[in-house]
Design goal:
244 residues; mainly alpha; Multidrug-efflux Transporter Regulator, Chain: A, Domain 2; three-stranded antiparallel sheet; two-stranded antiparallel ribbon; 10 helices; 66% helix
């Protein structure tokens, strides 16, 4: 059986271990208001839940972007107060999508300690199918995408066959590549080419401006794609339920 967060939550030590930070860091974030207060359990011991874990992961991702704690405070204040742990995990994946690709090496033991549960070979196959991790020549060492790890582990408990995950991944890759190709063509023809012709800049400066412009546009494009996809999925689900 997989190990879940207990009904009474995590202690501060368990939360820190799952998030990959120190207890001192957890307490520091709490004093800054970056984490909501824990539930107070028996013996006046604070207990933390999935929302705290997902919020810590989001803070970590924002720090990877170079944001200061003050900027992170302002960022988190703008989020709806009722976001669930899954909402926060998806939000973190969105944030991670416009920072440079990165993967961190981790042993199986480190992975299990990070997610707070044992991982079977089937679990590892599922995470690999979701592109959360990549196997290496050493069967006990993996390259892991930390931005997707906790979301991927949560999906392991959804009763979906590995074949279905692989088929869904193929569909997503096919259509996102097509959308990226068309959006890149629009950007080149309608935005960059007229801008380039009007400025007449040296090649090095052109390249620097192109990188800057694309970096500013990418978060907006990613958010637009996700929003459109979510709305389309809701419409499809409504249609499916009405037919049923």
């Amino acid at each position: 059986m997989t190990q879940q967060i207990a009904a009474d939550g995590l202690t501060v030590d368990e939360l820190a271990a799952r998030a990959g930070v120190t207890v001192r860091t957890v307490r520091f974030y709490s004093t800054r208001g970056l984490l909501p207060p824990p539930e107070i359990g028996p013996r006046r011991v604070g207990r933390y839940g999935p929302d705290h874990l997902s919020r810590l992961a989001l803070i970590e991702e924002l720090q990877h972007q170079g944001m200061t704690l003050a900027a992170i405070e302002r960022y988190l204040e703008q989020l709806p107060a009722d976001l669930s742990a899954q909402d926060l995990a998806i939000h973190r994946a969105l944030v991670a999508s416009w920072v440079p690709d990165k993967a961190e090496p981790a042993t199986r033991e480190q992975l299990e300690r990070r997610v707070g549960r044992g991982l079977t070979e089937a679990d590892l196959d599922g995470l690999a199918a979701m592109s959360v991790l990549v196997r290496t020549d050493d069967p006990e060492v993996f390259q892991v995408d930390p931005g997707l790890l906790h979301l991927g582990v949560r999906l392991l408990d959804v009763p979906i066959a590995l074949e279905t995950i692989l088929a869904a991944r193929t569909v997503v890759l096919e259509h996102t590549r097509s959308a990226a190709r068309e959006l890149s063509r629009l950007f080149k023809d309608e935005v960059w080419q007229p801008y380039r012709e009007g400025e007449g800049l040296p090649e090095a400066e052109e390249l620097a401006r192109l990188k800057s412009l694309s970096a500013h546009m990418q978060p907006m494009v990613v958010q637009a794609l996700v929003t459109a996809f979510q709305r389309s999925m809701k419409e499809e689900l409504r249609a499916w339920h009405s037919q049923e």
